[in-house]
Design goal:
Length: 88
């Protein structure tokens, strides 16, 4: 997927994978970070692993690359987040 010039499409759905130490309120912290940047979670799947990590896969709706980059930065700043990447 590439980012089109403004005006061609109002929003884009982007897949994000997050690896984190599992803990209480983790999903809430992730959701709040995305909402603070005016992003929208379209779908999410969370798997807790025996090694006490959590794998989250989500589709997030964003307006442009800049908003996506801000969301990734906010997610990486959350305590216990180990990795954030685009795609699955």
């Amino acid at each position: 997927m590439y980012w089109r010039e403004r005006g061609e499409q109002e929003s884009y759905q982007v897949e994000i994978s997050v690896l984190a130490h599992d803990r209480r309120h983790l999903l809430g912290d992730i959701s709040n970070a995305i909402a603070d940047e005016k992003g929208s979670i379209v779908s999410a799947q969370v798997n807790s692993m025996k090694d006490v990590t959590a794998n989250l896969r989500m589709a997030v709706e964003v307006k442009d690359q800049s908003q996506f980059d801000r969301i990734v930065g906010r997610l990486k700043a959350i305590p216990d987040i180990l990795d954030v990447k685009r795609g699955h």
